[in-house]
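User: Could you check the structure of this?
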Amino acid sequence: MEQQKLPNALISIILGITSFIGCCCTSGFGGIVLSGVALFLAKKDEKKYLENPESYSNYGQVKTAKIIAIIGLILGVITAGAYIYLVSTGQLDELRENYMEMLTEMQEEQAAAE
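Assistant: Sure, the predicted structure tokens are below.
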């Protein structure tokens, strides 16, 4: 009997890796969504593999996808938690103001040097 590949293994890995980018670019919420979908697909393939292990050849990819998705989920939750904390305490606005002041100072220093 020829072994098949589990259908969602590769897409789970891609979604898991993309969730790292989602953590950075969307304050963690995109990472949570993408890694959640990746974890769901990996678990679905894991169930399919456990029903008939000798029929599938790429179970290692599913385990890798599951690990990557869990890491992405943890990073997303940490990033989203930090963002929510900063917004709720008002520190995010302070950080933005400090950043803008630093940029203005750097621009003034560059203009004076030229």
